[in-house]
Model the fold of this input.
Amino acid sequence: MTLTEAQDLVAAHAPWSGYAESYRALEADYLPHVCAALRNVKPGVAAEVGPGWGTMATWLSGNGWQVTACDRRPLGAYITEDLLRVAGFAYAHGDIFMGPLATGADLVLMTQVLPHLKYRPDAALCNCRAMLRTGGMILVSALNNDVAPLQAEYGTRWREVPTWDSGPPGDESVTVMYNPETLRALLETCFEVERIWQPSGSATMLAEGWAL
Done:
């Protein structure tokens, strides 16, 4: 399955028009590079945390992966039962801060999720680590604040973000931003970081980490 085919399938089963009107265009900055990074990885068990409208879950499933999309939003808000049926992946409703949402994964994927996490991101990543088998990989993407800065409640200071037990989160859409240095420091709290790179022509960084 190509990325375009996955996007067409998502568009056909989206519960409202936001995907076709705006979100699909935003995916052009980073999803082709995410797919390229995974194209030569042997398919196995994958869990996507924060799957959005389900584009990558659909693409992974269409390329031989056994996929669970893990989201704090209830089924139907962005991903519908119809999409699960036609694309062939599962859905786990839960908050990554509460604990692991799947087990035994070869791959955990998080695209553009880290900036929006409302509590300490290292806690979320450690729960992602617990979802992986030994030797499994996490692949994340995040906008590079050095290239495309956005207003964020805590700037790039992810260590200052409140912990899960500290009370209600802030109201800002973007909690914290990242650059290569802060992204590496975050990932190294839970993973052996293989590489962080920024594809040519993209404002988004990609990073691989391993559960060794």
Notes: The two ends are 30 Å apart (CA to CA). The mean pLDDT is 96. Strands lie at 45-49, 66-71, 90-93, 105-111, 132-143, 192-197, 204-210. The first helix runs from residue 3 to 13.
